[in-house]
Write a structure and sequence with these properties.
Largest sheet: none
Oligomer: single chain
Structural class: mainly alpha
Number of domains: 1
InterPro entries: AhpD-like, AhpD_core, CMD-like
Number of strands: 0
GO molecular function: 4-carboxymuconolactone decarboxylase activity; peroxiredoxin activity
Radius of gyration: 14 Å
EC number: 4.1.1.44
CATH architecture: Up-down Bundle
Keywords: Lyase
Pfam family, one: CMD
Length: about 120
């Protein structure tokens, strides 16, 4: 079965919007944490998205993989950088990370294929 990673990432955003309405205080705090965590500082945002992608792979979180593959692409990560990130995640997480690593590469490719540039 082919997964629609663009739809999965959109679903993550839709779920977050519903949570912002249901628990605005907590989600405002979470958004603030994210803004601080992904800001370009000593590490560029692109590298931070690759780290988040690796954690999503190791954590076996399909929505995390789709969302952070999208964000890594949007921040300018190359397919080769994503592939190396997947390699580190596999080394840290073993066989299950290999399965989700394949998912991550397919997700990145879906966003790259959709880009008109």
């Amino acid at each position: 079965m082919v997964k629609d990673y663009i739809d999965i990432a959109a679903g993550v955003s839709k779920s977050a919007a519903a949570l912002r309405k249901a628990i605005p205080g907590q989600m405002q705090g979470f958004a603030g944490l994210g803004a601080a965590a992904y800001k370009d500082n000593a590490l560029p945002g692109k590298f931070k998205e690759l780290i988040a992608l690796a954690i999503g792979i190791a954590g076996r979180c399909e929505g995390c993989v789709a969302y952070h593959a999208k964000m890594a692409f949007e921040k300018g990560a190359s397919r080769e950088e994503v592939a190396e990130t997947i390699g580190v995640a596999i080394q840290m997480g073993g066989g299950p990370s290999m399965v989700y690593g394949g998912e991550a590469l397919a997700a990145y490719d879906a966003f790259a294929d959709e880009d008109p540039a």
